[in-house]
Structures are given as C-alpha cells and as structure tokens.
Amino acid sequence: xxxxxxxxxxxxxxxxxxxxxxxxxxKVTPGFPAVISNLNRPNSVFNGVQVGTITYSYxxxxxxxxxxxxxxxxxxxxxxxxxxxxxxxxxxxxxxxxLPPGFGRGGPALSELxxxxxxxxxxxxxxxxxxKRELAAWRASVSMDRFEQLRQMYExxxxxxxxxxxxxxEIENSDAEINYGFRVAKALGASxxxxxxxxxxxxxxxxxxLAEQN
Length: 214
Known about the structure:
Elements: H1 3-26, H2 34-37, E1 45-46, E2 49-50, E3 53-54, H3 66-75, E4 80-84, H4 85-91, H5 115-141, H6 145-156, E5 160-165, H7 175-188, E6 192-193, H8 201-213
Helix pairs in contact: 1-3
C-alpha cells in the first residue's frame, strides 16, 4: 500500500471520529445557528437526480462501524446511502460471530482437504450453525430503538438511508428473520430492502409475500 492510501485512510478514520463527536455535540448546543448546521453537509443531488452509494463501497476501510461509515460517506460528499447489514446490526448490539471474516465464501471442496483440515472445517461449520441460531434469536427480540438512533445520527449529518441490505433474506432464514429485516428498514427510514437476486423462484415468492405483510 502506498503512502497516499495510508494518509487517506488515516484522514477518513479521523474524520469519522470527529463527525461522530460533532453529531453528539449538536444535540446539546442550544441556540446553535441553523445556517451553521447546514455547512459542509453532503449533497449528491445533480440536476435533480439523487446519486447514492452502498456501504459495501467502503469495505476495505479499517473501521467498519456505523459511525466510521458515516464519516466515509460524508467525506465522499454523498447524502443518500444503501446500508449493509453488518454496520447497522453491530451498532444495535448483534452477537459477534466466532468465525473468521469471509468464512464460507468459496474455498476448496472437502474432498481436497487433509484429514486435519476437514476436521477443522467441520468444527467451524458446527460453530456457524450455532451462531446462526443465536443470531436468529437476537433478531427476534432486539428493540428497534438502536436502529432508530442510527437513523437519527445519519440524518443529523445530512445522510438519508434509502435502502437496507441485511443477511436476513436468504433461503435458510426463517420468516421471522425476514420480517425482522422489514421492521429494521422501517426504523432506519429506508424506502426499500435489497437482496442479491435469488436463484430460487419459490424464495422470491416467499420474500414478496412477506414484504406485502410489511
């Protein structure tokens, strides 16, 4: 990584921390002139067309928290965002996965592994199954308060969350988890949810029917 990229990452990380402090401070500053609160607010509307981004665009940044994401977005001059699931759910207190980042995405087939590697993978798959049950239970009981706080933090910085993309709409997710996804979208102020196009027509129909209920 070159020096320019290092400096940029350091700047964005510092900006994120400063922005989070500014947002909190603005809550307790009576009489703060309204015109000042609009200074340096992001604006990515061009000739009446709203341009936004997805937080996946910042996946290589060192800090993946919702607060840091907000800093990256504002520094980019963008005022509308499609929010991925991880930053929002972590902000709300999601249980942390015991698995390494990227586990389960590709990799060699079991037949290509050594006995020790196969045993390790099977143990991790078992841990993943336990974690998914724990995550589903958390989603079924979590309050929407923290998601509403996240929405307010973004709005105070001039950023609207127009879409929400959680990992709750897969075929292995329960109906309760899919409904949770829609509830969070409402709490975040999103007008819609997004998901990678399912290759199973029945799953598309299932999501559509649950969407109608929400």
